[in-house]
Amino acid sequence: MKRTARTTHGAHGARSAHSARTARNASALALGLAALLGAHDADAACTGVGLFSCGATVTVPLPLAFGNYDPASLTPKDNTTTINVVGTVTGLGILVTLSYSIGLSAGTGGTIANRQLTGPASTPLGYNLYTTNARTTVWGTGTVTDSYSALASVGGTSVPRSYTVYGRIPIGQYVAPGGYSNTITVTVTY
Question: Which single residue of 28, 93, 95, 185 has CA 20 to 30 Å from 76?
């Protein structure tokens, strides 16, 4: 079963090649992970012994906003946001395990390998989303997998998990000042 959440990301304060020495504001929303939630539990395939059902809800409480971007900076512009997944097991069962994967779409510009924030001019602002603080593994479709085990109860057992999304805008991108954004879809498949 799939649950999706849509979010918009951005960065602010991008400088153009004409204004590399002066700070002009521009906004570039890179990862606005706003959840288009599967805001209710639904039956899902899970394993265990007994009579039970499983479900999951996904939310992204805050968009990933990069703030002001300076292309002349010698360090990339980094920021994070969080994806929350709440798995629920209801019924009577033991050794119940719900497994799922979390995927992030390419968004409205670029590809998963080269995501893009679009702005006021034709030149996009490149960025990407990663699974760790080292920012070496790009977060794509089905990149992150997890599972949890619980005892199923009549009232339901909920297990919340949080996953950090690490965003980065590389250095040296001289683009027109203005607002830049991209919308990413978060998909939880179980």
Answer: 185
